[in-house]
Write a structure and sequence with these properties.
There is one protein chain. With 108 residues, the chain is mainly α. It has a single domain, classed as Muramoyl-pentapeptide Carboxypeptidase, domain 1, CATH 1.10.101. The chain contains three helices and four strands; from the N terminus they run βββααβα. A two-stranded antiparallel sheet has the order 1-2. The longest helix is centred in the first third of the chain and has 15 residues. The chain starts with a strand and ends in a 12-residue tail after the last helix.
Length: 108
């Protein structure tokens, strides 16, 4: 489960893919990704995008932020999805500089 860091940022692993279909988009996973994307946007070209509402809903804005992040940091065609322990997830955690996000992803 995500937890709240001292600076108010969510941290922890995701348990299901987030973003474009066929992602499951569990609300806590989406909220964590939204929080990390907002933090990462301060360090990227994506800073021109409006900050995401951290509401756990994977809407068009969330998917567009994921695609913008992928376009800037990865040598893949942006697909708007973040897979568990995938390239986008690992890079997002690294750019966001948040501890505790790459723990084992196991549903309890």
């Amino acid at each position: 489960m995500p937890h709240i860091e001292a600076d108010g940022l969510l941290a922890g692993p995701i348990y299901r893919a987030v973003g474009a279909a066929p992602a499951r988009n569990l609300a806590l996973d989406v909220a964590l990704v939204q929080s990390l994307l907002n933090r990462a946007a301060k360090k990227t070209v994506a800073k021109s995008l409006a900050p995401l509402a951290v509401n756990g809903k994977c809407d068009k804005a969330t998917t567009e932020h994921i695609k913008a992040f992928q376009a800037e940091f990865l040598s893949i065609k942006p697909d708007g999805r973040i897979d568990i322990n995938g390239k986008t997830w690992r890079k997002l955690v690294a750019v966001s500089n948040v501890r505790g996000c790459l723990k084992t992803n196991t549903l309890i």
